[in-house]
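Q: Protein A?
A:
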Amino acid sequence: MAGNKDMDIILIDSPFVTVLTKNNTITSLDGYQHVKEKFTYMFDGIENLCMHDDELIGVPATVSIEAWEANQELLENLKLELPDKSWSWYDFYEYAKLARKDINADGIKDTYIIEGRKDSPPFLSQYNCTYIDLEKKKASFNNEEFKNLLVLWKKMWDEDLVADGGTFITPKIKDNIVFCKCSLTLSMGDRAIIYPPALLGGQKSYPAQLKLLCITSFSEKKDLAAEFLSVFCSKEAQERTVITRALYKDFSIYRRDMLNPSSSEKNIEIFKNVLKYSIRENSIPELRIYTLGIIGEYVSGMLPLEKAVTMIEDKANLILGE
């Protein structure tokens, strides 16, 4: 790619944004008003996902966000209401205790709030997006927020509140599991969709995966490339897009069959708010693998809390400083 003047536009995944901007590979779009103005028609939050260091660096090819889906039939059997939209991971722990019931009267509790693995807390991606700053090369894990989250996660395993051996992301909720993650789109129908819990400090932050179309810094046809990006994000192009690329607030421009089944008002509101408070995913594979290993050892009682968070933070800052 380096120095290839024939390459005007590149498609990049969100985790690579920092690397490519650091290497001056991407051109700022701030000078192209006909591109910037398209964001006024898009959902709140999308423009922020396309920014780096206060500059617009690309337009979204795809944006993927997630929420949680509830097993409505199981909730009715458990006589539980859906959690409040402002619930936190503390509330999640309390809800998990309520969800642990014996519903077939065999004397054994057989329902769980989620299924998962000891080394994979469902808050980890959310936390990483909030507390890892790739631009400043800083990470914070040795703090009260992360410690309290880990303590909660360990308590849940110690108290048998999580179904072991499964994955939190499943195509279909199991009969004895209350919640699973799901992709969030505008065609959710009236499914029982809820917000993921907020971090303990109350921060609303939801990981978003996206692919960006960016103009290369070595392109000799930047103006023509910007014209293409403007057309790509235009109303006319959106009218012909697929649901996973629907970016505009005005639903009326989309074909009705594309939004079938169209989301309920409640699910549309959740979609808007999750997108509004989304943060571009900043996954670092080496750090994630290391972090999962340390968390697994802590939850299994093989590492004390203070040592675990110190090891993760030291590793994070070592990787970020390279």
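Q: Protein B?
A:
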Amino acid sequence: MGNNNENKIEEFVGYLHGEDDASFGGEHSDSNELNDVRKIFSLRKKVKQTLLLKTGQEAWTNVEQRMKSHRTFRVKKNLNYFRYAAAILAIVTLTGVLAVLFFQSPFNKGKEIVTEIISGMGEMKEVVLPDGTVVGLGSNTVIKYSSSFGRNSREVVFSGEAMFNVKKDETSPFFVKMGDARIQVLGTKFLVTSFAKVNRNEVVLLEGNVQYKRNNHNISMSAGERITDDLILGNVVSNQVDVSRYVEWTAGKVYLDNDLLEYLVFLMEQWYGIPFEFGSEDIKDYCFSGVINKNKTLEYNLNIISLTNKIKFKQDENRIIVKKRA
């Protein structure tokens, strides 16, 4: 009996493995023995996976090893970051030390760095100096100052036209150097025009007090005063003006009071970048009084000048010819 049961189980197993004829399953499909063997057979994979499982201690040991490996990787990674950070810090520190050594080096003593600011043709720009002084530059203007500006005094080298609004500092006087002329102030507002080409300096004092010096001229100016210095003849003319008019200079308005036409034409050359030519020499000595707006077109201002003087303007190629009007 036992051998028959064993043989039958072997036959069942062989059938489940697909080794026997399919008709075997049809004959015994309702057999309880076959159902039992089928259940056991279906559990064989789970039993196999269970046998492959590690004990709790082995599993924990494996987890610890993976954690240590990950921690080691992070430590190495952080160490690399620290190395890079240390290298960068060393470079920055070395750069700072070298900079200090350079500026404190005896080879660098006495050397000054000069800052130069230039406005272009027809350009107006505002500049703030290191002490807070505000300078409105006109066309074709140059202003320079050195790295020693503000240590014992404040000095700028100037050429062109500009409105100065000097920050007051009684311990550090402010100087504007124009060729061999010099303006000294403590804190004030003034308009200065100085182009070497026309050999003329003009200073209009809007606020405060200034001292104008050139050669044997030493003139103390008060608010509302204008001086014109002819650098060729050496004559300095002083007169009182309406300050409110000159305040509008930053808005483009230029007031002229009995100024030579030659000087006015020169200013327009700076503003508009086009050369003028006089038809005769005596026209240069014509005088003009009035206001010219640099923000207006050239044609607009030429019309105004023509209405107040017996002259006319004719544009010829890239220049404007000034002629007498019949």
